Amino acid sequence: MNAAEKKRDPTGYKGDLRERLIREKIGVWSIVRLERGHSIYEGVVLPRSEHTAEDYLVIKVDTGYNIGVKITQECKITEIGFQKGDYHLPQIAVKTRKELPNISLLGTGGTVASRLDYRTGSVLPAFTPEELFSAVPELMNICNLSPKKIYSILSENFKPEYWVKTAEAILDEFHNGAVGVIVGHGTDTMAFTASALSFFFKQLAAPIVIVGSQRSSDRPSSDGPMNIINASTIAGYADLAEVVVCMHGNTSDTYNLIHRGTRVRKMHSSRRDAFKTISDIPLGMIDSKRNITFFKNDVKHRNNIQDTYLDTKIDPKVAILNSYPGCNPDILNSIIDIGYHGVVILGTGLGHVPSDFFPALERAQEEEIPVCIVVDPLFGFTNLRVYETGRDMLALGVIEGANMLPSAAYAKMIWSLGHTRNIKEVKEILTTNIAGEITDREVNSGYLVLQGIEENIGKITNTLDPKPREHYWGEQVEKSEK
Q: Cα separation of 296 and 463, whole Å?
């Protein structure tokens, strides 16, 4: 292959499409016009992912998005230009500033700031201080940020033992002088990790802020930069000592919400405001000017970090089941057969399962395997005392999970069984509020406000705390500089 041909090499493409691109002297970085029927697409040919179907051509269009176009024999491909991608973050000198707080960012594989690798077409995390400050220069005036990668995995591959290692890494950062720790995490299982860390840390004296990005930063609509800016502000300045999730509160770059780790859930697959606090209101918000307002009066305050310690005993042999029309009790029996030690069931309505499950529930009780019920609707409390089915379930030893979210109940069951296999003791732990996973009541606005009704945000401040505490970014900077 000569230099000209190599320049037009269709890197990553296979089969008939690759042969066609070679014949027509089209390769990666060719600017092409695709005509398929009445549809016309123009964009830059990108290297394909190994998982992309062979007959799809991946191009970056003018809007900044990548699209895959299925190439048929009738489809016309014309090269209209060529421009080799050469994207890199500029080098920048990073200096420690004594007046700024020291923050640690632990990466687990989720991308909050990134750069596009045009060699492969993939998005790579910006993770050195130079890369982060180049990608998000505002950070230089907020904190001294020390990033450290502890994993490089997709969030769906997280396992309970990773929660333990993450918690240990966080505690090390606190002992090394960090006044707050940020955990960069993939959004899909972020709520599970947030719940587990909430149970692991005892007498937590500083904020742990879990943050991610719904859209990678090669996208014009990326939420990553604002998320990490606000997460850094919370970690460095907020009078807060809890595990929280900080993500966009609406579809614009107006504010982020601060969610308690045990009460948050991802409620949309792709929206930037995917995360919601369920059966409660968020702890607070941080706006685009970095002003923090707390909505609740039970926010835990900073304290002596030396008093913080870990309790990470776990037993990961726990399963989650859904109750649905036609579900077979063989599922629960199989879980018992293969040696699981605990089960969380999402029950319909107030927490019910079909009566066909009763023999399997009785077997679980006999073998001292705790079964905790939470509600499939997510909002509201488990109540097995209203209908006959529920009362029968209580007689079979089922544990009511109050208004715990499935992610919180799962993490709490794993943590509980790590401490005891005594079913009565497990029940006592599961039904005791430890980290805000159970609330005494459900305020009406917890269901109505911030569930896609953005104009109602003003109602929150009058819900529980008539005098919400506010932290103004400008005042914090003035104090730090003095």
A: 8
